[in-house]
């Protein structure tokens, strides 16, 4: 792939593939992703029972349905299954690493970094699902930079941080991310920016932040009967191109 060519990325909390009809249907999630036709997919709340029937291993099943490679960031075991964040892509994965950002005494949380080759360019994708408590997700957002996860000196490519930030009202999490990265004014760009709950969304929990060398071409929520039913979140979709004339880091 020519790294100048646009690429599409989506973030989607799939709620263990349990839809609003209470049916667990990974095939339905895969169908939603086929509609979106993204090059890179960041999923949160993925549950994978390995060695069981095909659909029970949600990460592998969805990757197989799309024909993508995938990286799994396991944050904990749930009912004996791997549970966490997943990145899937049609492009080569160079390396991936899951960072523990769990707050003491609270539910395990992680940040999955996946380094993806876009032709001759490296894209560092950080897929996060922050905690639900106010002080918890604020502290986790700071840790992404204070512990040099997103701003590690060895990172040589462009960066995208996306996922479910669990920020019910715009505040400290948004300010922390925007102090290091660019981000869309989602309320201005989207008439209906709210992604949760899916059918009658009230809150904007899902977001995307990126280096200035990544130029956002289009941002939209993927709607329709299937995505409204498939999960309790709506997918947030972004189209980017890489601007070779811009630096990827803020000074």
**Overall geometric form:** globular
Looking at the overall shape, the CATH architecture is: 4-Layer Sandwich
The number of distinct β-strands equals: 11
Count of helix runs:
6
Name of the CATH class: Alpha Beta
Helix content bin: 10-25%
- As residue ranges, the low-confidence spans are 195-202
Distance between the termini: 29 Å
Q: Please compute the radius of gyration using only Cα atoms.
A: 17 Å
Tell me briefly what this model is:
With 251 residues, the chain is α+β, with helices and mostly antiparallel strands. The chain contains 6 helices and 11 strands.
Outline the structure in words.
The protein is of the alpha+beta class and 251 residues long. The protein has one domain (7-242): Endonuclease/exonuclease/phosphatase (Deoxyribonuclease I, Chain A, 4-Layer Sandwich). The chain is 20% helix and 35% strand. The protein contains six helices and eleven strands. The chain has helices spanning 26-36, 58-66, 134-146, 172-178, 186-189, 225-230; strands spanning 7-13, 40-48, 69-78, 81-89, 93-100, 110-118, 121-129, 158-164, 206-210, 214-221, 236-242. The strands form two sheets. A six-stranded mixed β-sheet has the order 3-4-2-1-11-10, covered by helices on one side. Strand 1 (7-13), helix 1 (26-36) and strand 2 (40-48) form a beta-alpha-beta unit. It starts with 6 loop residues before the first strand and ends in a 9-residue tail after the last strand. The model is unreliable at 195-202 (pLDDT under 50).
